[in-house]
Amino acid sequence: MQAANVYIIVPAYNEEKVLRSTVLSLLETEHRVVVVDDGSATDLYNCINDLPVHYLKHPINLGQGAALQTGNSYALKQGADYLLHFDADGQHQIASVEALLSPILRNECDVTLGSRFLAGNTTIPTTRKFVLHSARYLHYFFTGILLTDAHNGLRAMNRMAAEKIQLHENRMAHASEFLFLLKKNRLRFKEVPVTIDYTAYSKQKGQSSFNSIRIFFDLLLHKLFE
Amino acid sequence: MSAIQLLLISAFLFLTLYYFVRLRNRIADVLLLVTLAAGAVLLILFPDWTNVLAQKLGVGRGADLLFYLCIVLFCFVIMKLYSRIRNLEQQLTDIIRKQSIDDAKKGSDLFNGK
């Protein structure tokens, strides 16, 4: 496992409270960690400058999609063989990292996507469930891929996939764009069950359900202006 | 010629001149603008034409027809502006991405080739 050159990309926006603990637990996996600070008000570098991580900063806030793409470009430039996206807000579990990586390391697929419904997670709030299921079918409508979950920040890919998937949606519509590019480039993908912790912090930090309307319009315009 | 006609025509002439000076290098845009302005001046001089056209298209009054056309034009302009904003955003993103990758920091001295 250690021979594999894995870069974990952590997009962060004003996450000074939890970033350090997230990064510390990620470092336990012995993979390289790339923190992309998406124009946070306070410099996140101060939280983690004593840790062996790569730190990139956008001078202004561009959105999660842009931060992930910056992380991807950087990791590819550093010679990454495998890339993984991981949210900074502490809602993902470290166990998910190996779960997502192993099918790709075994060369069963090029991309793995985390799915909280496959894991039979019952702690998902009801309104959240509704929004997520709507988003699934919206994805299906736009991309032709019907997954068991939607808008989950956890995914892993090999180098070939990361080179082909160039995200242009700066904001949250990147999740749909990702699927769209998956299909366009005929990449092999697989869903992996993961558990999401709905902590008070991640709920408050996470996007509100109303934000999905914005995502819908971003997607529509993406299709229009391709 | 009534006062309002004079006012509108001079406004259109001024706008055309302004755009003509600003967009000198973009022939297509200038042509489109001059055509539109010429049409506007003609319709201001002969307001009855809009009524005739409206009747032929099944709209009651000429003023209503103009109103509907304005809405369509307005939406078109918004779309044009939006796509331009998206392009600008993409360029900005590319610049910021390049800069932040060039300025990447490696967290600590403990880094030991990791």
If you had to describe this structure to a student in words, what would you say it looks like?
The complex is a heterodimer of chains A (226) and B (114). With 226 residues, chain A is α/β, with parallel strands linked by helices. Chain A has one domain (6-224): Spore Coat Polysaccharide Biosynthesis Protein SpsA, Chain A (Alpha-Beta Complex), CATH 3.90.550. Chain A has 9 helices and 7 strands, in the order βαβαβαβαβαβααβαα. Chain A has helices at 19-27, 45-48, 64-77, 95-105, 126-143, 159-164, 174-184, 200-205, 211-224, and strands spanning 6-12, 32-38, 54-58, 82-85, 111-115, 155-158, 189-193. Chain A has a 7-stranded mixed beta sheet, sandwiched between helices. In chain A, α2 (45-48) links the parallel β2 and β3 (54-58). The N and C termini of chain A lie far apart (39 Å). By secondary structure, chain B is mostly helical. Helix content of chain B is 79%, strand content 2%. Chain B is built from 4 helices and 1 strand. Chain B has helices spanning 3-22, 27-45, 48-57, 62-102; one strand at residues 105-106. In chain B, α3 (48-57) crosses α4. The longest helix of chain B is centred in the C-terminal third of the chain and has 41 residues, at 62-102. Chain B is elongated and about 75 Å long. The interface between A and B is medium-sized, with 28 and 23 residues. β3 (54-58) of chain A pairs antiparallel with β1 (105-106) of chain B.
